[in-house]
Amino acid sequence: MAIPFFSIDLSNKEFFKIIKDFFLPINLDKSQKEINLLLNERFKNRYINVLPSARLGFYLTLKKNLKEGDEIIFSSMSFPLYLKIASELKLKIKLVDVDSDTMNINHELLEKKISQNTKCIVVTHLFGYPCKIDEIKKITKKNNIFLIEDCAQSFDTFYKNTETGMFGDVGIFSCSLIKIPTTLSGGILISSNKELNEYINNWTEKNIKFSFKKKIFLFIKNIVSVINSYPSLYSILTSKIFFFLDKLNPRIYRKIIYSGMGISTKKFDAMERSTLSKYQIEFGLGQLKKLNQMKIKRKANIEYLIENIKNLENIELLNYENDIDWNYQYFVIKIKKNFGEFNKILFNQGIHAMEENVWNCLDYNYEIQNYNDNFEVTSKNNPKLLRIQNSSYLNKNHLDKIIMGIKKAHAQSK
């Protein structure tokens, strides 16, 4: 049995509800009101936009608040597509290195990079674990700089009892297939700015049109992805296709897996997706209502995995603080040496982990104002990162298979 690189936690009842809601999308307005109500209760005193994608929210935020030539600062390990969007809007990009414990932005280096032209700072809570957002908030407040929290991976993560997204002027959450919660493609933007909220609403109403073709294509893609959440079904066909592609041409396999990262040379298309369908909103509602039980299971999974692999000398764990209430969405480890061989052995056993060595923004062809600075921590650690499967859907047998696979890869790749 192969273990897919992500699994969506859903019951058989939820699966058939997806199909029913697609073909019978009645009471869409009611679903939209319900999800907005839930989000408004969660993110009090914030304006909410539920969008076709998180990237659209990011694009519109920059378009509304910044102008050509303004300087924007990212972590050197950020979502590459966001840098592409900033570059296409003709903003000047600077990067700040990360800390070695969490791979989040190093707040102690941040203030040194600020100039008179710095208008915006984007911080990514990488792998679901929060950065030192309170310290960053002090810096942006002191310098009157617009703060965007990239919370694509950090829904249900808290820092000092406040949820990520609530510190910045804007918080942007991804609800794509592999995120928690998922609307099977979509995004949520929260902000303290009524004008931005209205601007986004007006822009989307004018520009994001109903597209039957796009909706059919997305529905088929979602159904295939949902089916592949089940390891037994994934093992029958998809794992064999991925195995063949990886043997035939690893670049094709990598392109499929990381299609959303901004690796493509295509220009960002703000109108690439249609409005959210009834089945997507209903599925998102189901996810929101069971967030806590999924989080408890993911936490238990990670604790079990750590207990069984923590003494393997070729593996290093990220140094997270025990008292941080994060969402345990991703379990990322560092492979100290022979990364490629380690992952290949793991892959050949049906443990399809994800290489997380795609975050170094210096590896892309974007114009970086401080490209020649020293990004030692990023350069040293990015090539070592591997995401091990973690989903509330996985059971002990799945976890034991993953552990056995890791131990075998560890033993054979020394």
Task: Write a brief caption for the model.
Helices cover 45% and strands 13% of the residues.
Give short descriptive properties of this protein.
414 residues, alpha/beta, seven-stranded mixed beta sheet, 16 helices, 13% strand
Can you walk through the features of this model?
- The protein has 414 residues and is of the alpha/beta class.
- It is 45% helix and 13% strand.
- It has helices spanning 12-23, 28-42, 54-65, 80-88, 107-113, 133-143, 194-207, 212-227, 231-236, 238-248, 250-257, 278-289, 291-309, 339-348, 376-381, 396-412, and strands at residues 47-51, 71-75, 92-96, 118-124, 146-150, 158-159, 162-163, 170-174, 187-191, 315-317, 331-335, 354-355, 385-388.
- Helix 1 (12-23) runs antiparallel to helix 12.
- The longest helix is centred in the last third of the chain and has 19 residues, at 291-309.
- The chain is globular and about 55 Å long.
- The model has no long low-confidence stretch (mean pLDDT 93).
Number of strands: 13
Determine the number of helices (DSSP H or I, runs of at least 4 residues).
Answer: 16
Average pLDDT: 93
So what's the overall shape? globular
Share of helix among residues?
40-55%
Widest sheet: strand ordering = 1-9-8-5-4-2-3
Order of helices and strands: HHEHEHEHEHEEEEEHHHHHHHEEHEHEH
Gyration radius, to the nearest Å?
21 Å
Low-confidence stretches: none
Distance between the termini: 25 Å
Classification by helices and strands: alpha/beta
Biggest sheet details: 7 strands, mixed
Strand content: 5-15%
